[in-house]
Design a protein that fits this description.
By secondary structure, this protein is mainly alpha-helical. It is built from 4 helices and 3 strands, in the order αββαβαα. The protein has one domain. Strands 1-2-3 form a 3-stranded antiparallel beta sheet. A hairpin with a 5-residue loop joins β1 and β2.
Length: 94
């Protein structure tokens, strides 16, 4: 099976956090700023986290190799919880 390609535009626009959430830059902060209210310019600073359903679409269609990060963290978290519960049940059995 051939390799999947990551969309170049998505690489530039989105970042995936360690937990697998998609971050993006706010809009309305580039040009014609004189005609925009201060509140709009303030809210346009920095990055924001995308809603879950939209983030899933971005990961599925544009950033296919970032999905591994999301599922890898879930597996690691699940294994840690399983290990912790096994250790606590072993202590309770003693």
């Amino acid at each position: 099976m051939p390799k999947m390609k990551t969309k170049s535009s998505a690489k530039k626009r989105f970042k995936v956090s360690a937990n697998g959430k998609v971050k993006f830059k706010q809009s309305n902060a580039r040009h014609r700023l004189i005609s925009k209210p201060k509140k709009m310019k303030r809210k346009a600073r920095g990055t924001a986290v995308m809603f879950h359903s939209d983030g899933v679409k971005v990961l599925n269609y544009f950033l296919p190799y970032s999905l591994k990060k999301r599922f890898k963290n879930k597996k690691v978290r699940k294994q840690a919880n399983d290990n912790a519960s096994a250790a606590s049940s072993a202590k309770a059995g003693e």
